[in-house]
Amino acid sequence: MFGFDSAAGILDEGYLQTEKGYGTLRGGGFRVAIRTGMPGVTPAMWDWRFGWHGR
């Protein structure tokens, strides 16, 4: 799993193993990653659909 300091690696070209899967964090938590292709989705669409989750 990417640590915060190497998180920009997700922008590297190609498919990465960490784009789908899970891992255990040092503190005992888990990190889950799921890659979902969404061609044509704009940032405004994403905000309309998922923006309320963080509120």
The number of strands is 2
Spatial strand order of the main sheet: 1-2
Distance between the termini: 27 Å
- Helical region count? 1
Total individual domains: 1
Shape: extended
Average pLDDT confidence is 80
Radius of gyration: 14 Å
In which range does the helix fraction lie? 10-25%
Helix/sheet category: alpha+beta
The SSE string, one letter per element, is: EEH
Strand residue percentage: 5-15%
Describe the sheet with the most strands.
2 strands, antiparallel
> Low-confidence parts, pLDDT < 50 over ≥5 residues?
none
InterPro entries: DAPG_hydrolase
Family: Belongs to the DAPG/phloretin hydrolase family.
Cofactor: Zn(2+)
GO molecular function: hydrolase activity; metal ion binding
Protein architecture, described:
GO terms for molecular function: hydrolase activity; metal ion binding. Residues 5-54 form the DAPG hydrolase PhiG domain. This is DAPG hydrolase PhiG domain-containing protein. It is extended, with a radius of gyration of 14 Å. Strands 1-2 form a two-stranded antiparallel sheet. The protein is of the alpha+beta class and 55 residues long. The protein has one domain (4-54). 0% of the residues are buried. The chain has one helix at 43-50, and strands at residues 21-24, 30-33.
